[in-house]
């Protein structure tokens, strides 16, 4: 593992993938509550924008990678005739997602599977659209994960990635830096009992490539028309790319 790799627990005996799985298993039952607090509920609107992009591409077979507690998969189920597979590496997060899917009676539209985004157990060209909400920065091997996504995406299929980014303008840049460094770990640690997890999340976001840099990574891995659209003054960014 590279010295520059950001991991939750700084445990050399475990790779990033194992540490991320352990972290999300630990925080799964408080994750939704903390997400709403720490994003002031803005994440709901960001996900709605992702759904709008997917819907506009007439997608019906959809893979939601790093589905977590299922929020995005559930929103995607509102698309007419859509069938969604939500995939995540954390059993703890999927357990929460399953409870929500059952409660909303969406079993006929959403299938939840435990799986590795870098080793997708699907045939080539299986999906019209693939979404990843706040998940790509947790990939152990980003290029490998994107290559797998491209493999299972149909020709002209759309990839939509929602990921945290970094505001660049005053005063949001300074405010967000303070909020990420001090507020998120404090509140996250208080409610989740895992301060390391909520130190990792903003730290990994700060070091992850965003904007044009991430667009270039998408293009390098065989996607085209990669576009980045910042939301909420650049706190997050929505990336849209198609398969050649």
Structural commentary:
This protein is 45% helix and 21% strand. It contains 8 helices and 7 strands, in the order ααβαβαββαβαααββ. A hairpin with a 4-residue loop joins strand 6 and strand 7. The protein starts with 15 loop residues before the first helix and ends with a strand. A 7-stranded mixed β-sheet has the order 3-2-1-4-5-7-6, with helices on both faces. The chain has 244 residues and is an alpha/beta fold.
Mean pLDDT: 93
Order of helices and strands: HHEHEHEEHEHHHEE
Low-confidence stretches: none
Instruction: Return the structural class.
Output: alpha/beta
* Helix content percent band: 40-55%
Helix segment count?
8
* Widest β-sheet, arrangement of strands: 3-2-1-4-5-7-6
The counted number of beta strands is: 7
Main sheet overview: 7 strands, mixed
Strand content: 15-25%
Net shape: globular
Q: How far do the termini sit from each other?
A: 32 Å
What is the gyration radius calculated from CA atoms?
17 Å
Write the topology of this structure.
Blueprint lengths: L15 H23 L3 H15 L4 E5 L5 H6 L6 E6 L2 H13 L6 E5 L12 E7 L8 H11 E12 L7 H21 L2 H13 L4 H9 L2 E9 L4 E8 L1
Parallel strand pairs: 1-2, 1-4, 2-3, 4-5
Antiparallel strand pairs: 5-7, 6-7
